[in-house]
Specification:
By secondary structure, the chain is an alpha+beta fold. It has nine helices and 29 strands. β17 (388-404) and β18 form a beta hairpin. α3 (95-106) crosses α4 (121-143) and α5 packs across α6. The chain is globular.
Length: 686
């Protein structure tokens, strides 16, 4: 054994030598020693190919190090080192097992027969180590510990000092198990096959229970049906061979049984364990009544949890908003997710907030994550005129087909509809202000692609957007807009990156192409150099001051969209806006240091070419714009931006203003959402 530096955070096996990090707690160190020494047998003496088939040695080694840990420790390995919010709230599954379930439910789980180089870090650890160890544990429970041990010993004797393939291992277990374990091959070699059994009904006939077991997933496995008394103690259990049909009826002696559970003693890879439980004499047959959990993450299959956390929001029109966010479990993620965030606005004296509902349907095809149906909604105030408050409400249904090859290569094809009801104002001759409600419908088709490798992260989006809307004077206008966006970030040293963003937007059809109005009630959907609250026609982003830009005493808020410029102005300005086309290039780079270890200083340069006009009588004319300055950013969460120089056709917006008034800021509220990272795991290690 050779001690390594603490930065290694783990161990590494080599023939006759093991390198270990001894800086962790004693249980982790003990676990590492057991794991790495076991490699002397699995990949040492039995010389499987650890590069092409990592699961063969890492899986068996992990199976035995788990046995060692369970014999000497109360908690699972790495329990103490796991953040409190990720620790399981019960002993049903370990944190690592929940990670395997999370990969399966999010659709990122890769098949075990991939070579090591194709795995991302989460799949490499989750699949080759934990899932394979879990499979071997389940197999040992099904055929019996003695039979499993005999299989492993005979496998060792037959293949010592040789190079077994995956097929050699599987065929050996088939030969020695004397049971049908064809399901083992599917778990090892195929992606997209998930296992989901449920207790559908229970009928009691004197002392006999007739239990109907349903099969919801694509994979059939043997399973254990367990019966428990009123104190949760095991009364009886029965193994049933794999379920090949959609359902089957299992008979069980009902004496003393108060509840039933599928795989209660040997929890396995079930996609949805919440339907594995049934209480015979309870009102809630499938789970306990609702339990509220502060800052909850995961609750297990027997708890009907509503997680919550207090929230504090603000915008100029609702004022300070006090509320709470209620949400479904995040780890492991549920295939039906939801959140509800009601707030009370201290200025508007009314409710404001948002909600979201998402249902994922797993798909069998290779590299398909899921089919997703979702509905989001929000309601806030966004304008006040003469002490009259105006609000908007939005519903956003969407359906998408999601693809993935691990967490580092994903694609999405999505249809989204923005259903917006916003209050606007009309004034009478005597100066009275009246509310008028506008109904808007915006349709979008999006294709998104994400790919990451060791040195760079690449994102691409193509969008088609259509809207038909009522304009003043009983006019009906419509447009069809196509746009693309390419984002690339590349490391030029270990901690610093160079960022490139390329954007192009063009109106394939636009009734207001020749208009000199932009982003208003006459002309909607205009392309903008700087995206702000007034140009956000879909009400997609959250603005602290949606209907005002900035003033001489405070910076203005913007979003990275359309032209991607960071310039905000003291009044509404249409410079560079277009109803025809816009091209832009946004560049920025990390300086090789950080302020307070988290704030990146990034010089930036924005370039754009826009087809625009100032007055209606003018012809459309291409104009070139540029702006450059310094940004101070915290990751992708947001930052403060200081434009230092720009093209002359932007100077008009700064006439008479101080340098401080040029400051702008951005807050990426999506980057603050834990739901986003629960679903888009690749963002955790961008």
């Amino acid at each position: 054994l050779v001690e390594s530096s603490c930065e290694s955070q783990s161990g590494m096996e080599y023939p006759m030598i093991t390198i270990l990090n001894l800086c962790a707690d004693s249980q982790q160190v003990d676990h590492l020693i057991a794991h790495e020494i076991a490699h002397n047998w699995f990949y040492g003496v039995i010389a499987s190919n650890e590069r092409d088939h990592a699961w063969m040695d890492e899986g068996l080694t992990s199976y035995f190090d788990h046995l060692y840990n369970d014999a000497f420790y109360e908690n699972s390995s790495y329990y103490e080192g796991t953040p409190q919010v990720l620790r399981p709230s019960n002993d049903e599954l370990t944190t690592l097992q929940n990670g395997v379930i999370h990969l399966a439910r999010t659709g990122y789980a890769m098949s075990l027969d991939n070579p090591s180089i194709d795995f991302d870090p989460f799949n490499y650890l989750g699949m080759n180590y934990e899932k394979t160890a879990w499979i071997f544990k389940y197999l040992s429970q099904y055929i019996g510990d003695d039979a499993f041990e005999a299989c492993v010993q005979s496998y060792y004797k037959k293949w010592q000092f040789k190079h077994p393939s995956p097929n050699d291992l599987l065929m050996h277990f088939h030969a020695c198990c004397h049971k049908d374990i064809s399901w083992l091959d599917s778990l090892i070699s195929r992606k997209g096959l998930y296992f989901d059994y449920k207790i559908k009904t229970v009928k009691q006939d004197e002392n006999e229970l007739k239990v109907t077991i349903g099969k919801k997933g694509f994979l059939g496995l043997p399973y254990q049906l367990c019966g428990y008394d009123t104190e949760g103690k095991l009364v009886t259990s029965k193994w049933i061979d794999q379920l090949s049909k959609s359902e089957q009826i299992v008979s069980l002696n009902g004496n003393g049984i108060a509840s039933l559970e599928i795989n209660g003693e040997v929890p396995f890879l079930d996609y949805n364990r919440s339907n594995n439980n049934f209480k015979l004499n309870k009102v809630f047959k499938k789970s306990d009544p609702i339990k509220f959990r502060f800052l909850g993450m995961g609750s297990g299959s027997k708890i009907n949890a509503v997680n919550f956390i207090p929230t504090l929001l603000y915008n100029k029109y609702d004022g300070l908003m006090l509320g709470s966010a209620f949400y479904s479990d995040l780890y492991p993620q549920q295939n039906f997710k939801w959140f509800f965030n009601p707030n009370y606005g201290t200025r508007s004296k009314s409710l404001a907030g948002s909600f979201g509902l998402v249902k994922d349907f797993p798909l069998k095809a290779e590299n398909l994550r899921n089919l997703r149906i979702e509905l989001f909604g929000k309601h806030f105030h966004y304008l006040d005129i003469l002490n009259v408050d105006f609000s908007y409400s939005k519903l956003q249904p969407a359906i998408s087909l999601n693809f993935a090859k691990g967490i580092y290569q994903t694609s999405q094809l999505e249809y989204k509809m923005h259903i917006i009801s916003n209050q606007n104002f009309e004034s009478s001759l005597d100066g009275m202000v009246f509310k008028k409600t506008n109904q808007l419908r915006i349709h979008q088709i999006n294709f998104r692609h994400f790919k990451k490798n060791a040195l760079s992260t690449n994102r691409f989006q193509f969008q088609l957007e259509y809207e038909k809307y009522d304009a003043p004077f009983n006019e009906m206008n419509q447009y069809l807009k196509a746009s693309f966006e390419v984002n690339k970030r590349t490391y030029y040293n270990e901690n610093s990156q160079f960022f490139i963003r390329l954007y192009g937007g063009y109106f394939i059809m636009n009734d207001q192409r020749e208009s000199s109005n932009f982003a208003d009630i006459f002309t909607r959907g205009s392309l903008a150099l700087t995206s702000n609250g007034l140009t956000d026609h879909t009400y997609e982003s959250y603005y602290l001051n949606r209907s005002a830009l900035s003033n001489n005493n405070s910076p203005g808020q913007f979003e990275i969209s359309d032209g991607g410029f960071k310039n905000t102005y003291t009044d509404y300005n249409t410079v560079g806006m277009s109803n025809d086309y816009l091209l832009s290039l946004n560049l920025k780079s990390d300086l090789p240091f950080k302020i307070l270890k988290v704030i990146s200083t990034r010089p930036y340069l924005d370039l754009a070419y826009s087809s625009t006009k100032e007055v209606l009588a003018d012809p459309l004319e291409g104009q070139f714009y540029y702006s450059a300055g310094l940004s101070f950013e915290i990751g992708d969460i947001g930052g403060i931006y200081l434009p230092l120089f720009n093209s002359e056709n932007l100077n008009i917006n700064y006439t008479g203003s101080s340098l401080f008034s040029r400051l702008s800021f951005r807050i990426n509220f999506n980057a603050l959402s834990p739901w986003r990272y629960s679903d888009e795991i690749g963002r955790l290690i961008e």
